[in-house]
Amino acid sequence: MTTQPPDLKEIEKEAQDLLGECDTPRKLEEVRVKLLGRKGLITGVMRELGRLPAEVRPAVGKEANLLRERIEAALAEKKRLTSEEKEVSEPLFDYTLPGRTPWLGRSHPITQTIIEIEDIFRGMGFEVAEGPHIETDYYNFDALNTPEDHPARDLSDTFYVDKGILLRTHTSPVQIRVMEKKSPPVRIIAPGLCFRRDTPDASHVPNFFQTEGLYVDREVSVTDLKGVITAFARELFGPKIKVRFRPHFFPFTEPSVEYDFSCMICEGSGCPVCKRTGWVEISGAGMVDPEVFKAVGYDPEIYTGYAFGMGVDRIAMIKYRINDIRLLYENDLRFLRQF
Ligand code: PHE
After folding, report:
1. Nearest atom, ligand 1, residue 144 CA
2. For residues 289 and 10, what is the distance between their CA atoms, to the nearest angstrom?
3. 284 CA distance to ligand 1 centroid (A)?
4. What DSSP state is assigned to residue 327?
5. Domain containing 180 — which CATH number?
6. How far, CA to CA in Å, does 141 sit from each of 84, 86, 276?
């Protein structure tokens, strides 16, 4: 019995159509069975070969073998492609992994303290002002009634950048800068960095923060100063805090005081932070000296005012119970992360 030789071109086209459709490993396996399985298309062709007339058999057999090789190669290639596709199309994400904790930044304890100070004073009608870190000796000293021979102006106390130019030793020059620009009433606070030639120890560093306060109007008195400082202390530390004013001297205020807060760490019984006195010195304050008003063109017969400083680092230390000021400037994250 003889048969027509199979139409190998037609069969190859059919095989290619089948292969073209498979895009997953499972479909590929189905197609492989359809082509090369026991009842497969190509298997069928090979089986038919025996029935061909002897004259055509070798030539057709050779073609059929080549076709089978091409189909096998195409299947192998498809297998490679579908498994690669599988890898990229399936997410590489392991849902059982613990989530990544986002890095949350936070404000430095000094910044947090300044923000709180600003909030409290804003609530009492103060505006926030700023001045430069690098000052002239006019703003830092002369306009603040501090004479040429005052010890604070010494090279051993102040960082000079150049002749007459220095790193401000306090925030008080901001008083002058604000009053030069504005006529009374003036009610500002001015937080910022200050610099002094100090050897670092538990309570001194060469750069530190102050907040200046200034209130100028008609008929401002010492009572207003004491009231505002006390209200601030109670707002920040609670109603139990006590405030103490001691006579002092500053060239730019008259009369002048230094003021202390009762130590919130030991509540007055004595600890290393308050040096066993029960009180922590915060800064100085006083009624603006008429000489300062003259320097900015305010009439001291009409206006009075008070000014105060505030050691921000000291307030932060009481608030967060820090016993060494240097910790605030080492930028050790193990320390800073606690606040
Ligand atoms: N500037 C002063 C200091 O740094 C503090 C102060 C400010 C005193 C305002 C009086 C008035 O010590």
Report:
1. 1
2. 110
3. 5
4. G
5. 3.30.930.10
6. 76, 76, 34
pTM beyond cutoff 0.90: no
194 Cα nearest atom in ligand 1: 4
Do residue 274 and residue 182 come from a single domain? yes
Residues forming beta bridges with residue 258, ordered by sequence position = 246, 284
2 neighbors 51 (Cβ within 8 angstroms): yes
The residue contributing the CA closest to ligand 1 atom 9 is: 308
Give the whole-number percent of the chain exceeding pLDDT 70.
97
Distance from C-alpha of 314 to C-alpha of 4, rounded to nearest angstrom: 105
Provide the 10 A C-beta neighbour count for residue 8.
15
Range name among 63-67, 76-80, 104-108, 333-337 with the lowest pLDDT average: 76-80
Query: What are the φ and ψ backbone dihedral angles of 244, each rounded to 5 degrees?
Result: -125, 135
269 Cβ contact partners less than 8 Å away, ≥ 6 residues apart? 278
Ligand 1 pocket member 285 (CB < 6 A): yes
Of the residues 89, 118, 146, the one at which a domain ends = 89
Residue ranges making up the domain that contains 284: 109-336
Q: Is 250 in the pocket of ligand 1 (CB under 6 A)?
A: yes
Residues 63 and 23 in one domain: yes
Tens digits of per-residue pLDDT, 218-273?
999 999 999 999 999 999 999 999 999 999 999 999 999 999 999 888 887 888 77
- Do residues 193 and 187 touch, judged by C-beta distance below 8 A? no
The alpha helices in 168-285, defined as continuous H runs, are 173-181, 222-237
